[in-house]
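Technical annex, item 7. During the second reporting period the consortium partners agreed on a shared format for inverse folding records so that results from different sites could be compared directly. Each record opens with the tokenized structure and is followed by the designed sequence. A conforming record, contributed by the partner at site C, is shown below for reference.
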């Protein structure tokens, strides 16, 4: 019988590994973080770095069964209930503490209180929650979305032109109330206030009322991010920000993006539909309670989009693209869908992955660090390991029309000596021809 040595999944916002039983206090903090998210499991007997299954000792097993559940219940508020079960992997026993999804948020250490006793899950780490995150949890526990909250301004800040263009009819307060774009003022039920969603979607200057609700686009020289070539600040409502950001980044890519001194001619290094989807996702799903701009950074070899707010709810960074949808800003998402900005909820990340795969590009990478999400688009092609280096070079030359040795090195991840040798073979076979001399030498398909 084959011995299972490595657990098949990696640590995530819903999965934690412990090689040995830590102090109960450490486990309780992780349980609180899972309860404040979408639930999760702690597996004791699995190494966190290697995922190697080493098993749990009888002594640690007895400690969990004898005292942990009561300790967890007594230490937390609201009280957390956990499930404990065992798994046998080819004779190696590991123990799992499972925390179910629960609506009674925020959970916290009873002897510390709110906010210091509140913990959250960021990627595969357990961290103390910020005040803003605690406020989000309180809203979630009360079934209130941040984008439904009012702004202490007159509803006159909402543009009549934008509202008319969307509704194509006379807009009444009753309709705006139903769509949660305005809400009743707490002090006077006959007065109305615009909501966060209403301001972001239908105010021409939402950045005046919602701190840093803008997009900052920056392009850097090289790949290090040390020298800035140009920075542009995109303002306006969400629809305008999406349109202007896409237009600007596309113009930079088409006009100025260079790869090893070879200018791309009228062809984007990434699919425009993937870029559009990523920008719109950032604007619709970002955490607007955080006063920080959405940022788009362009380098010679990649494009990065930073978005305030980690993935919400049930969304797991290890399972992106599986169709799971959890809306942080449900009103914004619903209206954006009606505007035509979003075609189908839950399909955006899959579209990004599939469109890049179709062009044989390296898969975009999502990362979740602190309270933000970053997606990185790479301009390198995904090397087809089933094909020879010569065939990959030929395919690259057909796509780019003209290539350099540097293109081959960067795109196919091979050494300069190998790239030069393979090119010479293709030239002798009359499949590739040399264009120019010296440092400006290029190659194209015969």
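Designed sequence (site C submission):
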């Amino acid at each position: 019988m084959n011995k299972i040595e490595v657990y098949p999944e990696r640590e995530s916002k819903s999965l934690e590994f412990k090689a040995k039983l830590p102090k109960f206090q450490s486990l309780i903090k992780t349980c609180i973080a899972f309860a404040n998210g979408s639930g999760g499991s702690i597996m004791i007997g699995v190494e966190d770095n290697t995922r190697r299954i080493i098993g749990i000792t009888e002594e640690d097993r007895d400690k969990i069964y004898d005292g942990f559940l009561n300790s967890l219940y007594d230490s937390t508020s609201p009280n957390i209930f956990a499930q404990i079960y065992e798994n046998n992997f080819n004779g190696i026993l590991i123990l799992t503490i499972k925390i179910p999804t629960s609506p009674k948020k925020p959970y916290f250490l009873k002897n510390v209180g709110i906010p210091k006793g509140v913990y959250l899950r960021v990627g595969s780490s357990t961290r103390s929650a910020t005040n803003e995150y605690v406020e989000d949890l309180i809203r979630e526990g009360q079934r209130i979305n941040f984008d439904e909250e009012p702004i202490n301004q007159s509803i006159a800040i909402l543009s009549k032109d934008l509202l008319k263009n969307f509704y194509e009819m006379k807009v009444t307060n009753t309709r705006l109330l139903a769509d949660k774009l305005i809400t009743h003022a707490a002090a006077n039920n006959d007065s109305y206030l615009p909501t966060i969603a209403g301001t972001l979607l239908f105010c021409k200057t939402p950045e005046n009322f919602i701190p840093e609700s803008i997009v900052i686009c920056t392009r850097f020289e090289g790949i290090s991010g040390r020298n800035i070539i140009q920075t542009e600040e995109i303002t306006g409502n969400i629809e305008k920000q999406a349109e202007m950001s896409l237009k600007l980044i596309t113009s930079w890519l088409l006009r100025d993006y260079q790869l090893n001194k070879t200018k791309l001619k009228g062809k984007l290094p990434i699919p425009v539909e993937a870029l559009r989807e990523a920008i719109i996702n950032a604007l619709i799903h970002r955490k607007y309670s955080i006063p920080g701009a959405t940022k788009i950074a362009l380098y010679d070899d990649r494009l990065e989009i930073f978005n305030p707010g980690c993935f919400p709810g049930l969304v797991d960074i290890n399972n992106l693209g599986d169709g799971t949808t959890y809306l942080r800003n449900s009103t914004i998402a619903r209206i954006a869908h009606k505007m035509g900005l979003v075609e189908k909820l839950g399909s955006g990340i899959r579209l990004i992955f599939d469109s890049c795969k179709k062009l044989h590009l390296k898969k975009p990478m999502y990362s979740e660090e602190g309270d933000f999400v970053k997606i990185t688009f790479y301009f390198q092609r995904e090397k087809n390991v089933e094909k020879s280096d010569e065939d990959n070079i030929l395919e690259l030359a057909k796509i780019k029309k003209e290539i350099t040795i540097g293109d081959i090195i960067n795109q196919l991840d091979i050494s300069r000596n190998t790239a030069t040798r393979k090119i010479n073979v293709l030239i002798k076979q009359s499949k590739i021809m040399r264009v120019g001399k010296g440092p400006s030498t290029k190659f194209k398909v015969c």
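The CA atoms of residues 101 and 400 lie 49 Å apart. Residues 260-264 have pLDDT under 50 and may be disordered. All partners now use this format for quarterly exchanges.
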